Amino acid sequence: AVTRAAVGTFEEDLETGEQYVICKTPRFAQTGPVTVEVSMTGQAFTDNKQQYTYYPEPTVSRVTPGYVWSGGGELIELDGSNLFNSDRLKVRFKGKSSKGEIVVPGKFKTMVTGQEINEETEEMQDVIRKYIACKAPALEAGVALPWETKISVALNGIDFKSLEGGFIFHDFKIGGVEPRSSPYSGGVEVKIVGDSFFDSGKLIARMRWDHMEPVV
Q1: Residue-wise over 139-170: b if at least 16 C-beta within 10 A, else e?
Q2: What pLDDT digit, counting tens, does each position of 27-38 carry?
Q3: What SS3 state is found at 100?
Q4: How far is it, in rounded angstroms, from Cα 181 to Cα 186?
Q5: Distances, alpha carbon 151 to alpha carbons 31, 74, 83, 110, 175, in Å
Q6: 150 near 166, Cβ under 8 Å?
Q7: Are strands 67-69 and 167-170 parallel, antiparallel or unpaired?
C-alpha cells in the first residue's frame, strides 16, 4: 500500500463543540479511493476506514449560452473534461470587476451525439457528451448591468475550476434611435441608444415592418 502523510492542526467550534483536524491533501500519482486515518501521537492511527476519493483534474472548456437575462431561469450547459456525477456539484458566478458571487446547484448529464469505431474492438460505439447543467440565477435589484462574471464548476462543492473568458448577465433594452427617420432606400447610419449593451460578437440590429400594407 502507498501511504502519504500531511501535518494537521486541531480546531474546535466553540459554539457547537465540533472538533476537527485541518490538513492539506498529499499528492498521489493516480486517481482512486483512499482511506483517511488520523494519529494524535504520530504512531497509533484510527482504524474506522473513512473513505476519500482522488479524481482527475476537471476542466471547463465551453459554456452555452455565453450570456443570459438577469431575471434568471435560463438553462446553462458547461462542457469540459473529467466531469462526473456528484451530489455536491456547484456552479459559481463571480464578478470580474465587482464584488459578489452566486452559487447554484449543478447536474451532471450525458447525451449520445453520434457513433465512432472503437480502434481496439473495431466495433461501433456511441460518442457520449458529458456536461453539467444548471439554471441561471436571478440577480438582485440594484446590480449594475451588464454584469460580467467568471463561471466555474466544483465537483466536490469546494474546489472551483473556471472557464477562460467571461459570462454575462444583461437586461438590454433600447432607449432611442438617432435619427428617428430616413429615406426608405436605406443606407443611412443610425445610432441606437440603450442600456445594458455589451460586445457579444453577434450584434444584430433589425427593422421590423409592422404595417399590413406599405405606407407611402
Answers
A1: beeeeebbbbbbbbbbbeeeebbebeebbbbb
A2: 999 999 999 999
A3: coil
A4: 10
A5: 26, 15, 15, 20, 30
A6: yes
A7: parallel
Low-confidence ranges of the chain (pLDDT < 70): 212-216
Place of cell 471547463: 60
- Closest CA relative to residue 85, chosen from 67, 105, 108: 108
Residues in the chain: 216
Cell (9 digits) for 111:
447525451
What is the spatial distance between Cα 53 and Cα 84, in angstroms, rounded to a whole number?
A: 13
Q: What is the pLDDT of residues 48-87, one digit of tens each?
A: 889 999 999 999 999 999 999 999 999 999 999 999 999 9
Query: Could you tell me the pTM of the whole model?
Result: 0.80
124 neighbors 115 (Cβ within 8 angstroms): yes
As a whole number of angstroms, the distance between CA 187 and CA 62 comes to 37
Query: CA 54, CA 58: separation in Å to the nearest integer?
Result: 12
Residue type (1 letter), 132:
I
